[in-house]
Amino acid sequence: MPGENLTREEARTRAELLSVTSYEVELDLRSAVGEGPASGPRTFRSLTTLRFTCAEPGASSFADLVAPSVESVTLNGRALDPAEVFDGTRVALDGLAAENTLVVDARCAYSRTGEGMHRFVDPEDGEVYLYTQYEPADARRVFTNFEQPDLKAPYRFRVQAPADWRVWSNGAGELTSGVWEFAETAPISTYITCVVAGPYHYVTDSYSRALPDGSTLEIPLGAMCRKGLAPYFDADDIFLVTKQGLDFFHENFDYPYPFGKYDQAFVPEYNLGAMENPGLVTFREEYIYRGKVTEASYERRANVILHEMAHMWFGDLVTMKWWDDLWLKESFADFMGAFSMVESTRHRNGWITFANNRKAWAYRADQLPSTHPITADIRDLQDAKLNFDGITYAKGASVLKQLVAYVGQDAFLEGARRYFKRHAYGNTTLGDLLSALAETSGRDMTGWAAAWLQTAGVNTLTPELTLSEGKVAELAVRQEAAPSHPELRPHRVAIGLYRRENGALVRYARAEADVAGPRTVITELAGQDAPELVLVNDDDLTYCKIGFDETSLATLRAHLGDITDPLARALCWSALWGLTRDGLLPGREFIAIVLRFAGRESDIGVLQMLHSWARTTLAHYVAPARREETAAALGAGALKELRAAEPGSQHQLTWARFLATAAASAEELALVEGLLAGTESVEGLEVDQELRWAFLEPLVVDGRAGEKEIEAELARDHTASGKRHQVRLLASRPTEAVKAQVWAQVVESDELSNALVEASIDGFEQSSQRALIAPYAEKYFAAIARVWSERSIQIGMDIVRGLFPSLQDSAATLEQADTWLLQHPEVSQAARRLVAESRDDLARALRAQECDAKAG
């Protein structure tokens, strides 16, 4: 990644000097098909005409471009020597006029890493598919620009493509004389421009809405995927959620959707979940389900669709000035995704998923050494890339949920409406939003912002209960913070008191209160009957870790499954997971609670999360000497629940998938083998292609199946999805030769695409193969500085994070990480952050294992 960075100070200086008038971008993508060059990268022509003004005529600046070569550069009619002005990442611009026209004719490279113009060849039919992905700064891999969010401009794209292709961009397009011409966009930032091209399967619909002025808003809708996925493409459900979301946002934002059409492209080998390009949202194609999935999968997809739609206002219409305020779009979109989904679609349990899943991501990120305030200090583009994290998304969304409780929903939404109208097509900072919210709520937002947005770390709220004659004499909430981040925040919380009634654990008293400082007495609950469970942050109003008094913890151990309210139950599961990660609850005890109560969990998304947590606990938090017996218990529990689940139900499918990851005994593996071969069956369980791959994996990892069986399965599923499964399973075979080959392909070569790098790493890292991959710990620390310097940032992140030797869980591995950090101060702070985060996860695992070992 040499020379590709851009600092905040450079961006600020350039924004003070320049203002962009327009872009005209011409791309010739016909080179995407046919034979590639004998050597060097496959490239396409990119011709950019960039018009801009300069506040200080005579000054110098630069444009951004990452390309193998530049044919010509013309500034204000003056030809410049590309060899003199282009260094591979920047075009030097000297002697600028008040008004300027820059024309750059370049050869840009197709990508195999999901950055820039990604080129994918479908193994099923040989068809080529293209799409662009830019955030935070990869538009410069496709056309010449000023790659920073506050230099907005309108764009016109013209694209030449193979004759049998169709092309899409942000604006509406039509084919004219063999060239796709696209309507000029509204002023937008570089990173949300987009081009999708290829023989995609395309479905259309439309949305209309009467506006207050008497006119009708008409929005053409489109959705697309690869031809190979067309049989599985449920566009009707995608359009249904899309229309419901458009209704919700129009009703609540009072600002009509501003970008004309609304296409949604599901594309292969995508690095992200989705990207909010106005008029052309891109999603990873895994959101098209090839087999039977649970309702939780459809909920997850609906949430992503609505998250990206919220960006049309929060991020696209109004954009942060620099990446410090990334939360101004991502936190809002994460909150609005859940809020709009619960309010407008069939997925009414979205806040349960948010409490149990999204916030777990935030709590982990907020306890890492790299934790940062929601409004982060982003020094450069590499910082920005890594700050698409659990704090910016899920913690920010949690804090916004707290803000709604603090100022009221009406004031919050009215503040958003004023914010859009005041800053439409502009760029903002934290103060712009706070001023709008202060106006509508009547509250001083500076103190709230200082506590919640400008400090890092997570508080823990724990009840302190004093009883007298079977009644609550005093109930207080103790607030604590880590010494490294001691801020105690104001929390608006609900405290629930629970007791058993007719075999159920139900809430019989509740109070909302403002908690501040180290200890707050909740006077409203004095005199209530003694509870069996005190749940702080009932209803999940604030962002905090939840502690329990001893009585409450004992109640959860014995009766967690008796809690009737699904949100309260999810909060308790999340809290127990937090105690396990913190080394306060033995890992084996957490798994025992999961095995005791998970079979009664009604919310399928929570159940899937429990399975994920149980797998992580076994791999990282159970004492090494007790792993084998714990794995046996987990596998036996999975088999028991599979057999007990209702035939054909979502729960049956979820337990079947969990058995595929937990099978340990000969009986369990034999059942999996029989289900795959068709010699065994479970009533109601349909073993479709995706489940076949899931069942094959434990057999390969255990050595019961190998290359022959993997290749036979690929022959049944000769698709892009099948290829990813094949690569992952080949990498998971338990031999030294396999691991050496995978290491060479991923670390020593750049031949694999981003998706296949990810699949290879997933297969390489198997918790049951610790001894087999132990030699690669030393190789990892020897290689990562070079990898980071030579590979793209996405691949660098995948390797540095994915191959960290976390399964070599010993003090020696911690020492190796510490030594590397000490001896490599020159390596990018972004790379060092990834190593430090993984090192912290390992240290946490060792503390948890110590807790588990002490439990006997």
Question: Could you explain how this protein is built, in words?
Answer:
The chain is globular, with a radius of gyration of 27 Å. Strand 8 (116-121) and strand 9 form a beta hairpin. The chain has 28 helices and 28 strands. The strands form 7 sheets. An 8-stranded mixed sheet has the order 5-4-7-2-1-10-13-12. A 5-stranded mixed sheet has the order 15-16-17-19-18, covered by helices on one side. Strands 8-9-14-11 form a 4-stranded antiparallel sheet, with no helix packed on it. It is an alpha+beta fold. It starts with 7 loop residues before the first helix and ends with a helix. Helix 3 (235-253) packs across helix 5, helix 13 packs parallel to helix 15 and helix 15 (604-621) runs parallel beside helix 17 (650-662).
Number of strands: 28
Strand content: 15-25%
Number of helix segments? 28
Cα-based radius of gyration, to the nearest Å = 27 Å
Low-confidence stretches: none
Helix content: 40-55%
Q: Strands of the largest sheet, in order across it?
A: 5-4-7-2-1-10-13-12
Termini separation (Å)? 49 Å
